Amino acid sequence: MDQPLLQFTSTHTIRVESLDRVKGLIDEHNRRLFRLGKRSNVEIAPASVKTLRTFQAQRFACDDEVSGWRYIPPGSADAKHLHWWAEVAISGQAAMVSGWEFVATVSYTDEKIGFLVSKTTANIKGLDLDALKQRGGDCDHCQAKRTRKATYVLRSLDSQVKLVGSSCLKDFTGHMAPAAFAAYADMLTFLMESLEAAEGEDEEGASHGGSRSSDSTAMSLGEFLGYVRRAIRTTGEWISRSKARDAGEPYRATVSVAECNIEQIESDRKMMFQHEAQLAVVRSQILDVERGLPLVDRPEVSVLLVEGLAKMKQREKDLAESINLCQLDIESLLPAEIDRTSAEADLEIVERHLVAKTDLDDFETNLQVAVNQGYAFGRNRGLVAAICSVADRIRRDIARENARKQEISEWFSTEGKRETFALRCVYTQPIEGVYGTSYLHIFIDPQGRKAKWFASSERLAPGTYEIVGTVKRHEEYQGKKVTQLTRCKVVKQLSLEGVR
What we know:
The chain has helices at residues 19-40, 129-135, 169-173, 178-199, 221-235, 241-247, 254-292, 299-333, 337-356, 362-373, 381-406; strands at 7-15, 48-57, 60-62, 69-71, 83-93, 96-97, 100-110, 114-119, 150-156, 161-165, 219-220, 375-376, 418-433, 436-444, 450-455, 463-477, 480-496.
């Protein structure tokens, strides 16, 4: 490679109990790094974690009278908690290409928050993060001022700092594969944020700043896309946030449905764990009363104990029923095996498409950033959810191209005639109109002749069907003959394929 190998090292002080989670973060980072190097044909050294020392210190104390956590100096008489801490060093290869190191990413969130600056390295000495945030998506190479989803902050060995848009990286650096190192920078950004979150956690797992850790709600792409696929399967279609906003009720964005299911599962699990703890206490109390009841020789006390025992048993029944209902609710909201399998296939086909395509547009560039980050979390969940929609579009494009190779330019049947046909549905295209969504079905008959059918509500999966329909007209599209059908009714499904 044509750039020097620059190492980075960052040190973090974390709870000893969090060591396994930090090592897991490093292992997952290295697995994704291996996949990045394999598909991009670049060599980047894996990261490593080393425990420098462990020590016992009074770092934080909980004050019941004051909301939240406050800092307690080591050795202070006010300290109420004594914890074991570990000082760890994270080492790896810096994201550097042609003498320029990726030190941060300026990313656009929304109109309310604006731009955020995420560090790619712990060494940000000399960087004015506020100034970078104010500059937003400005690119020093093309001089274009745009609201880019991601702009990279590059620093040279002689401390020059430049902001470069992702589409300008190749021209600016002169390197053949700068996108691979930009992807690596995205991975380092998430790793650094996760490590800082682990560094700031107390024993309850919450950050001392009063908000949840940045990775506490993070979920692997495959896992989150499983919930997205479940939402698509249960609602029948992909609904973007813009469509849900414009159409109003009863439309809900697919990503919102997925997020609500995840939140409901978390709420159910929390309630279930609380009720399980309460149930254990109630059962222990019941056992104590049942053991002591025969030893009571005063009738009035026995009556009170029997009444109390009946109430405790009713409480035991209520708690057990609540736990069972929570478990049933969780099972009903979890992605099915077909959802998880579809999600993995979606991620794989989108990854292949983005790597193979050389001229990514802005949306595809942003999607590439989300894929490289490897996780779905608050800021990028809407973009990640679109992977399923993009995968379906890619499959439709592939099916359309395959159909074009197979079809022949010839009409079938007679205009106005209604009869039964055996047709293979190649793909289905949603069509947005003033009256809602309709679906264009593209068919091929056994002889290779093309047909189409606009359905107002019915959406067929790819496969072969026995269909009763009326030939509306014979027409030509892009120089090829197409038979348009109307008033179609599916008699039976003959076979099913896997392309949506």
